[in-house]
Write a structure and sequence with these properties.
alpha+beta; WH_DNA-bd_sf; Arc Repressor Mutant, subunit A; 11 strands; Alpha-Beta Plaits; four-stranded antiparallel sheet; 3 domains; transcription regulation
Amino acid sequence: MDVVSPDERGTTERVLTLLGLLQQRQVWTGPELADRLGVTPRTVRRDVERLRTLGYPVHATQGVGGGYTLGRGQDLPPLLFDDDEAIATAVSLLAGAGGALAGAGDAALRAMTKLDQVLPTRLRHEIRALSGSVESFGRGRTPVDPEVLMTLARACRDEVEAGFDYPSGDELRRRRVEPYRLVASDLRWYLLAYDLDRDGWRSFRVDRMTGVTARTWRFRPRAAPDAAAYVQESVASRVYPRQARFLVHAPAGTVRAQVSASAAVVRPHGAERCEVLSGGANLDLVLVHVLLLGHDFEVLDPPELGVRCRELAGRLLAAGASG
C-alpha cells in the first residue's frame, strides 16, 4: 500500500486551496496568493504549474492589473465546491430532474448522479429538505420525486436490483427489476428495466411508482435494446390495444416537427418519405391525426384500416356533394 508523506499531503491540500481561490475571483496577483496560502511567490508559481499539469488552464499576465487567471479549457476539469455551493448546486439539479426546469431534466439527472458519487453524507439531509421547497407551474414534464429519480439513477449506475409497487389493473403489485436506463420524454420520466418476474424488458412510468428501493444484489447487464427508442415505441404504440403504421409522403424531420414524440414514432423511409407508427383505442382517431398532418400517406398496417379509409372517403365525398 502506498503511503502519502506529510509533505505530499500538505502540498496537495495547498494546491486544492489554490484552485479554490482561483475559482472564487477572476484575477489574483502572485503576492496575494502567497499571502493567502502562507508561502513564497516562488511556491505559488510551482503550484500553478502543478495545476496546469492536471489540465487546469491557469494564465499569467504581467503589468498593472495582471496576475493569475483560471481560464476556460478544451475539457471541463473538476470543480471545487464549498458546502453552501454544493447544496445550491444539488438542489437546483434535483429541481430540474424532478420536472421544475423544463427541457433540462435528463442532463440535470446525469449531473446529479455524478455529484452524488462525491457528495458528503453530512449534506444529504439539508439538500433533501431544501429540494422539497421547490415548486413549478405551467405545462411541462409530470413532476416526480427527485429522491425516487436518484434512487433509480444510483441503481442503474451501480447495477443493482430495484423494487417498487406499480399499478396492474385495479391493484398494486411489487415489481423486481434490473434497472438499465432512465429516459425522459417531453411529458414524463420512464425507467427501462428487465422485469425479473415477467422475464422480459419493460418500460415503467416513474410517476406511477411507489415504495421505490434499491437492493444490494448486483446483476450482470444483459444485451439491452436502445433505451430511448424502446420507451418511445412503448409510449406511442405498444401501450395501446391497437397499433397502426403509415407511409407518409414527407421527410421525417418535417413530420417529427408536427407530432409529439409520445404520440408517434417517426422513422425515415428515404429522403422524402417516412414511416409513422402510432396506437390508440380507436384507430379512427389515429387516422384523423395522420390525415390532418396535411401530407399524402398510405396505410401499411393493419389491412382493415385501409378498408376503413375507403369507407370514410365515400362518406366525405357524399357529404361534400350534398352541400
